[in-house]
Amino acid sequence: MEIKTKIVVVDESEMDEAAEKAIAEAGAILKDGGLVAFPTETVYGLGGDALNPQSSGKIYAAKGRPSDNPLIVHITNMKALEKIVKEIPETGKKLADAFWPGPLTMIFQKSDIVPEETTGGLETVAVRMPSHRIARALIDAAGGYVAAPSANISGKPSPTLAKYVAEDMMGRIEMILDGGSIGIGLESTIVDLTDGEPTILRPGYITEEMLTQVLGSVAVDRTILDGNSRQAPKAPGMKYRHYAPKGDLTIIDGAPEAVRTQINRLAQQQKEKGEKVGIIGTKENIRYYKADSIKSVGSREDEESIAKTLYQFLREFDDEEVTVIYSEGFSTAGIGQAIMNRLLKAAGHKIIYLDE
Ligand code: TXA
Ligand code: MG
What we know:
By secondary structure, the protein is of the alpha/beta class. The protein is built from ten helices and 16 strands.
């Protein structure tokens, strides 16, 4: 069924009367069981009332997402957390103190008020307290609990601009709050607190190093960077091919000069076969490349700029109908762990390592 989608521009830095009115309207839509896409500090979310099983059902339908893939519940305060979880372990309190509000999601045992539709049938619930002002105002206006996956059609890169939300969600949801371009550009870090040692299920802006500083130690799900692992990832969503552009993406990793040469050689071969070739490279290398579409993700030293632009570039390649894509590989320290995790998934783990 086609729904009329209303788009309203709201500016986080200038929450005027018009913005307040739009957020009140969006909150009412959510309370009423409808869906609203909204900006967060990580990526755009597709929100529904987390305590309403029908709303969660609509989210799965709008995304075309398998319903065994659980949703993250977004809240704005610790009182709300107490209501939706069985208990808050000491580790959870420490992490909340250090990183909430912000781009961290924690998994807890769920309380009875959280419907199974929201948790994909699991007895656990993923919870995040975002810092984005518009997200926070919307959650409060909606009654305090907003289930929100990234606002993309299942399998595509998460939207970091409202125009990509509109591309995927027009006619499927009631409203889009357009808060402009997103700050971080990659989804939140997910840490599981329900199964022994706290474990990173999805890397993000809150890095392994930052978590270790607070907790002393943290485990990492082996499947994050290892495509050959036969173990199933613990976050159900991480098992799907994800963040994928339409073009066929391969990562080339190794010493910069060798990578440059190999990417240009492969690009030339593909061009001769009639393919339209795109390249993702760092500022240090970009002037050497030859291809139909070349995207500079910024400096190798500035991984935050790589995180911020990666999904946008994958979406632009789609718009340009690029059929073959090569990307440089990146360091896996710090936020690089999250960048390489997303890039590997987008590439279906196709990576060529060049020996030094
Ligand atoms: O930054 C973010 O986290 C964004 C914004 C909108 O907040 N949201 C987001 O949601 O990325 P989504 O649905 O695209 O990704 C949620 C991930 C999936 O991989 C899902 O399987 C996992 O979290 N997840 C959710 N609940 C879980 C649970 N109870 N146990 C294990 N994994 C869970
Ligand atoms: Mg997603």
